[in-house]
Amino acid sequence: MSEPITTPLVPAPPANGPPPADADARLSRIEAALAVLAAQQAAGPPPEGYSRPGSPPPLPGPNPLTQIGAAVELAQFTGQLPGGGAKARRAWLKWPVIRELILVFRLYFDKRYSPTRAAQLGVPAILALLVLNWAFFYFAFTLPIVAQVLERLVIMAAAVFVYRILAAEVVRYAAVLEYLTKTGRG
């Protein structure tokens, strides 16, 4: 933005009297200032690293607005964005879970991030175990009630392991995203 236009305060002319002598000069200055502001507004923002005459120089380092935007996006994805109200409390389950699922999907396909070995090998191994679990209890172990109970116990144990691995991985990925945001590489 440009510096504010400063003009000396002149008392208003009387309601029925003639305008003051410098009214034309003041009107010309106001029109010129409005023309400059309209031209600056039509030109759009200046290129990165440049500023318009009369505006403060840009801050050194990465753009803080970009960092704030990335931090807010990260907080929204991890469900750590503070908020209040009954509506926010009602949605406690659906949005953070969806955000974490999106973050899990992103961590596997982000080229800047390398998942741990547990996430690389453990999760697919547990998913393969679930398929083998179904095949074993469907074809080999056919006791009516015992097979179903044991199958559900194995599924629950596998789900806990997958959850623990992915929860730790999401925390690690969020920390990496925060670091990349702070250093301006995010």
Question: How would you describe this protein?
Answer:
This protein is mainly alpha-helical. The protein has 2 domains: 1-58, no CATH class; 64-182, no CATH class. The chain contains 6 helices and no strands. The protein has helices at 23-43, 64-78, 86-90, 94-109, 117-140, 144-182.
The rounded distance between the terminal residues' Cα atoms is 28 Å
Structural domain tally: 2
Assign a percent range to the helix content. Answer: 55-70%
Cα radius of gyration in angstroms: 32 Å
Structural class: mainly alpha
- Oligomeric assembly: single chain
Note the main sheet.
none
H and E string: HHHHHH
The chain-level mean pLDDT equals 76
Strand residue percentage: under 5%
Low-confidence runs: 84-89
Count of individual beta strands: 0
Shape: rod-shaped
Output the number of helix runs.
Answer: 6
Q: How do the helices and strands line up, and which of them pair or pack?
A:
Elements: H1 23-43, H2 64-78, H3 86-90, H4 94-109, H5 117-140, H6 144-182
Helix pairs in contact: 2-6, 4-6, 5-6
How would you briefly describe this protein structure?
This protein is an all-alpha fold. The chain has six helices and no strands. Mean pLDDT is 76; it is low at 84-89.
Can you tag this structure with a few keywords?
186 residues; mainly alpha; 2 domains; 6 helices; rod-shaped
